[in-house]
Design brief:
Layout (H helix, E strand, L loop, with lengths): L5 E9 L3 E9 L5 E9 L3 E6 L6 E8 L4 E5 L2 E3 L6 H13 L1 E12 L6 E2 L2 E11 L11 E6 L1 H8 L6 H11 L2
Parallel strand pairs: 3-9, 4-10
Antiparallel strand pairs: 1-2, 2-3, 4-7, 5-6, 5-11, 8-10
Helix pairs in contact: 2-3
């Protein structure tokens, strides 16, 4: 199958997280087409933190695009060359104050391949210990909560629905 040739590439905006890109292509019918997408600075990790008693650690976090508080699992960027589990353990402690003794990969996905170039690593964190050490960026407005799986499923169904929470629960509860 033919890959459409790129005739021009423009970066339309950039910040520390991503670049928005416009590429001029030739469509299969021969007509010009401009394709817009997001090119992320780094891949990301989604952490499913499981306490010894089976409860989960979640974040109630403000998400500005929705102008709402959303329940999610901790997540963040993976530094270049960093192991996804190491990034997950780091992000978990930065955002929640919990440190994980063990971490393992559950899944790697490209969550929105038609819009965003980014790989998402989903990891399970266990052996959690509360350190009290939390470091947030200015707009990381986070309240940490501990919930049962049933409570997490109920929260996952409340709008706006968090794909981070819902997808993490599906992976955790799959046979």
């Amino acid at each position: 199958m033919l890959i459409p040739p790129i005739h021009a590439r423009r970066e339309t905006a950039r910040n520390k997280f991503f670049t928005t890109v416009a590429e001029d292509l030739t469509a299969p019918d021969g007509n010009p087409y401009t394709y817009h997408f997001i090119d992320t600075t780094w891949d990301a990790v989604l952490v499913v933190p499981l306490l010894a008693d089976g409860r989960l650690v979640l974040e109630k976090i403000y998400r500005h695009p929705y102008r709402a508080w959303v329940h999610e699992f901790p997540a963040g960027g993976i530094d270049h060359g960093e192991d996804p589990c190491a990034a997950g353990i780091r992000e978990l402690e930065e955002e929640t104050g919990y440190r994980a003794a063990r971490c393992r990969s559950l899944l790697v996905v490209e969550p929105v391949p038609g819009l965003c170039r980014m790989r998402l690593h989903v990891v399970l964190a266990e052996g959690l210990v509360q350190t009290g050490t939390r470091t947030h960026e200015a707009m990381e407005l986070i309240e940490v909560i501990e919930v049962t799986r049933d409570e997490a499923w109920a929260l996952a169904k409340q709008p706006p629905v968090s794909g981070f929470l819902l997808n993490g629960l599906v992976l955790l509860d799959r046979p």
